[in-house]
Structure to design on (477 residues):
């Protein structure tokens, strides 16, 4: 099950709503608490965090909302949607800082990896998203890699929760 | 300490981050051994840094239970009206015994990005961010020729700088932002954001976790360096310390300048257009931390 969580709504629902900006750590902690409660209530496998209509997003809040949520491992997969360029930059920075990665859905473009992912991971992610479920051998064939390189890279995608593994096959996240 | 003796501290005629050392030197040792009379009569020009620095001085005196300082307003009517429009007097009452007539200030200043505002708690940070975001789209875009989507970064930088007051200083602080033409150095418009508090400063904030690692070099300068260059924090949380990293990136992206003063040192990331020294140590002591971020209009604008 995919659950879309509108962060602007969570901001408004915090006990003392302050503004439409995701700034400051206490605000971030309150919003993360809202996400965790929403995920716990539905037991969803994937949470789409929708940043549409959120004003500013500062580093402190990006760290509290996105990085700490991923570190806590509450939802199986987290996808970020509706981020503007400045917000993408803030999230990318905090994810790299923690050695994390996440999928972002950017308008007018396909799914995109934010955070710490090397070039191999980004290419493999692109192939899995474009082609659909594939084995490491199929990826190796497609990219002209040795099979070990393909297997290692796909395992990396799964470890970063950027793809799912089912038997020998690697699946793209079931994006909305 | 009695209040029988009053010492006059003259505010420099051009009062900005550079002449602030002269002001701090005139105050002398902290806490001062006499009641202070802050004499701003001769001031001809003040930057946001000067305004928030003055309020921090008064707040520090209050925090240390010193007698309420006296304050004589600028004699130049136009200058004094600017101080009123900037919001300085809205907050100076209660921190100073004001001498002079506070000019009425209807309406804001067209170049004020953010009037002098207190930062006491998280809701103040939200308010400051909201205000600067609203004004940035008007001033930064129209006057500096910076693209509208880039103005968000001004709010982000300001948010991080203001949060440091709430999270680290142990006192309250002040923030202000203004745009003006910097004829002397650049011949271009700049946006200047200044944040100042009267709290514990970088050295005391970072001492427990980082002094031993740095060893003999530990002091105000090394502490600012640890915060700004190495992005360390007083918290063990590995996610901390990224706020100043963002500000630094923002400043470098825009060929801007950041200068942080704390205690007896000032560390700056100096662009080519400025002649400041990267690190000034053994400058006159001033409580808390003072941050100035200067962003020039792009050269083509």
């Amino acid at each position: 099950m995919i659950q879309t969580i509108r962060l602007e709504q969570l901001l408004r629902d915090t006990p003392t709503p302050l503004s439409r900006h995701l700034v400051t750590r206490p605000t971030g902690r309150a919003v993360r608490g809202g996400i965790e409660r929403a995920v716990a209530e539905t037991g969803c496998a994937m949470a789409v965090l929708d940043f549409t209509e959120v004003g500013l997003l500062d580093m402190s809040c990006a760290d509290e909302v996105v990085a700490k949520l991923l570190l806590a491992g509450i939802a199986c997969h987290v996808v970020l949607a509706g981020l503007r360029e400045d917000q993408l930059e803030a999230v990318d920075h905090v994810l790299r800082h923690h050695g994390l990665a996440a999928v972002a859905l950017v308008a007018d473009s396909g799914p995109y990896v934010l955070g710490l992912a090397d070039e191999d991971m980004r290419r493999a992610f692109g192939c899995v998203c474009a082609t659909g479920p594939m084995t490491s051998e199929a990826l190796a064939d497609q990219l002209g890699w040795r099979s070990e390189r393909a297997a290692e890279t796909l395992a990396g995608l799964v470890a970063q929760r950027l793809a799912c593994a089912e038997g020998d096959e690697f699946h793209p996240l079931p994006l909305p | 300490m009695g209040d029988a003796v009053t010492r006059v501290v003259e505010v420099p005629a051009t009062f900005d981050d550079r002449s602030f050392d002269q002001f701090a030197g005139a105050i002398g040792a902290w806490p001062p051994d006499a009641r202070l009379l802050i004499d701003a009569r001769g001031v001809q020009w003040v930057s946001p840094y000067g305004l928030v620095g003055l309020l921090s001085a008064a707040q520090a005196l209050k925090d240390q239970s010193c007698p309420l300082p006296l304050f004589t307003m600028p004699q130049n009517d136009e200058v004094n009206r600017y101080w009123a429009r900037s919001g300085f007097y809205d907050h100076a009452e209660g921190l100073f015994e004001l001498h002079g007539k506070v000019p009425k200030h209807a309406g804001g200043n067209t170049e004020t990005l953010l009037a002098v505002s207190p930062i006491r708690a998280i809701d103040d940070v939200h308010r400051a961010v909201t205000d600067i975001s609203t004004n940035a789209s008007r001033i930064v875009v129209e006057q500096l020729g910076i693209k509208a989507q880039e103005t968000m970064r001004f709010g982000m930088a300001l948010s991080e700088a203001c949060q440091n007051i709430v999270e680290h200083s142990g006192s309250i602080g002040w923030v202000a932002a203004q745009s003006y033409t910097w004829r002397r150095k650049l011949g271009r418009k700049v946006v200047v954001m200044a944040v100042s508090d009267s709290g514990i400063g970088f050295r005391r904030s970072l001492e427990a976790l980082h002094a031993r690692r740095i060893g003999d070099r530990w002091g105000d300068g090394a502490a600012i360096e640890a915060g700004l260059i190495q992005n360390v924090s007083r918290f063990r949380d590995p996610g901390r310390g990224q706020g100043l990293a963002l500000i630094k990136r923002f400043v470098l992206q825009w060929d801007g300048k950041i200068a942080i003063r704390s205690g007896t040192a000032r560390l700056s990331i100096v662009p080519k257009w400025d002649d400041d020294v990267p690190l000034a140590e053994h400058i006159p002591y001033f409580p808390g931390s003072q941050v100035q971020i200067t962003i020039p209009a792009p050269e083509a604008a």
Q: What stands out?
A: The beta strands of chain A are 2-6, 46-50, 77-81, 101-105, 111-115, 163-166, 169-172. The interface with chain B takes residues 16, 18-19, 21, 23-27, 55-60, 63-64, 67-68, 84-86, 90, 93-94, 97-98 of chain A (CB under 8 Å). Helices of chain A lie at 7-13, 25-42, 59-72, 85-98, 119-131, 136-143, 147-159. The mean pLDDT of chain A is 92.
